[in-house]
Amino acid sequence: MDVIPTGVTESGIETFAAKAAMESDGILLINRIKWHTSFQGPIESGLTKMAAIGLGKIDGARTSHRSARSLGMENVIRWAAEQNLATGKILGGLAILEDASHHTARVAALRAENLIAGEEQLLATVRSWMGKLPVPSLDILILDEIGKDISGTGMDTKVVNRGVHGQYNPWPETPKVQRIYLRDLSPTSHGNAVGIGMADMIHDRLWHKIDAEVTWVNAVTSGSLAAVRTPIHYPSDRKCIETLAQTVGKSDPRDVTIGWIRNSLELGTLALSDNLREQIAANATLEVSGPPFEFAFDGEGNLERLPG
To answer: Low-confidence residues of the chain, pLDDT below 50?
Structure first.
């Protein structure tokens, strides 16, 4: 985690770079080009962010996120990256573009002098491939799991339409979701449950897997404290789903619209409630893979994983 200072931007942002990287003969950045989960702009998550924040380790992350509160994250990333690029140590970057199924679709090499402008064009391409929920709105969205291996915010905010500071449906081009229910934490998240604060309810099994210290360090470093607030939690899926259904403003439970996904990365197979049949039939991108099914709860009121 050793870093060295690389200067101060005109806007007053202190910048850093890894000591080992700066002692090398040259730096080649490698990262996915992807939309960011906390803001929207011409530059979001990719090589520029790696040059600005990733290269600066935890010191760079802290100063960047602190400055972003007043200057805006996209500006901070751009200005801090320009400062580190000016050192001459960064030779360029290798950008990885993924399709909606998160398979590598394209790899692009960018020289240092074209790194930021080139990334703007690549991000526009990736945005056009973004996977989304295939209906305009849901009363309840069920996710089998969240985790840092799935998204930096546990679940992709631009899939579930939440903000890390507690905002409901902040992304206008994303389907609206009234309530989010989380069933579990990915084992490879190692107890980091950042993102639970964006949910309305979680299962007790997730609650018991949280490593508070790891989760809180992530929240404090990013400045997204609301993202780790504890939602209501119960010991069974049945209790959670039935309780949430009472809060969406519909007197007849049969009218409650429900979507069920494994996680915000895997949208290829999902379940939608039968009261969405008309919307499903109108969507040419959807294929119904089987007959309707009821929620199958075990003796403790819990579901298996999403079928299919």
So the answer is: none
